[in-house]
Amino acid sequence: PTECFLSQPEEKQESTVKAKRRKKKKISDILQKSAPKPGVPADLQNLLTQHFGENRSVIEIEELKLSDSCFLPANDLTHSFSSYLKEICPKWAKLRRNHKEKKSLVMLVLCSSALRSLELIKSITAFKGDCRVLKLFAKHIKIKEQMNMLEKGVFHIGVGTPGRVKALVEQDGLCLDSTKYMILDWNWRDQKLRRMMDIPEV
């Protein structure tokens, strides 16, 4: 008897190489490649117009506009923080001596995180002289403690986050009437490579 061989259908070899998925470009990748640019007044002016543009009338937006005369020269990224402050505030020693008001600050520095605040506080030792610096962030410090400190003592510089500063102002713990300088930490990026202005809550 003749043997019958059944031809087995050839198994299709599974393509071992899967089609490579296209890697989605993340915002952090784009930001990583972008070099830091010195902040200019237009950056903040445009940001304010965008933010308030949706729910304010034209007249209200006009009133909110900050003219260029409100701004000091921005850090051109060649300065350290201390040398920048010395440039924009040459009469600091006199301002510091004359400041006697409680619940207020002469200079307010806003940055995006508590760790960054501590970094900046360390970096202004060459500038600050014998003035008192207050930490204005939420990490490990209760708002009541900060309010008590502001009420009892005279502080010259406050370094902190927008959220905590806003809360202190709203709760009448901080008065901005004698504040002469407000510094925005514009270019610094966090782990996700966001600047302070890229955080929606800010």
Question: Can you put this structure into words, describing what you see?
Answer:
This protein is an alpha/beta fold and 202 residues long. It folds into 2 domains: 33 residues, no CATH class; 123 residues, 3-Layer(aba) Sandwich (Rossmann fold), CATH 3.40.50. It is 37% helix and 8% strand. The chain has 9 helices and 4 strands. The protein has a 4-stranded parallel sheet with strand order 2-3-1-4, sandwiched between helices. Helix 8 links the parallel strand 2 and strand 3. The radius of gyration is 27 Å and the shape is elongated. The model has no long low-confidence stretch (mean pLDDT 87).
In short:
This protein has helices at about 25-35, 40-55, 60-65, 80-90, 90-100, 115-125, 125-130, 145-150, 160-170; strands spanning about 105-110, 135, 155-160, 180-185. By secondary structure, the protein is of the alpha/beta class.
As for the number of domains, it is: 2
CATH topology-level fold name of the largest domain? Rossmann fold
Strand order of the largest sheet: 2-3-1-4
Write down the overall geometry: elongated
Average pLDDT metric: 87
Structural category is: alpha/beta
Give the number of helices. 9
Oligomer: single chain
Q: N-to-C SSE series?
A: HHHHHEHHEHEHE
* CATH architecture assignment name of the largest domain: 3-Layer(aba) Sandwich
Helicity range: 25-40%
Looking at CATH, the homologous superfamily of the largest domain is P-loop containing nucleotide triphosphate hydrolases
The largest sheet is: 4 strands, parallel
Query: What's the number of extended β-strand segments?
Result: 4
Low-confidence stretches: none
Look at the structure and give the CATH class of the largest domain: Alpha Beta
Distance between the termini: 89 Å
Rg over alpha carbons: 27 Å
Task: Report the portion of residues in β strands.
Answer: 5-15%
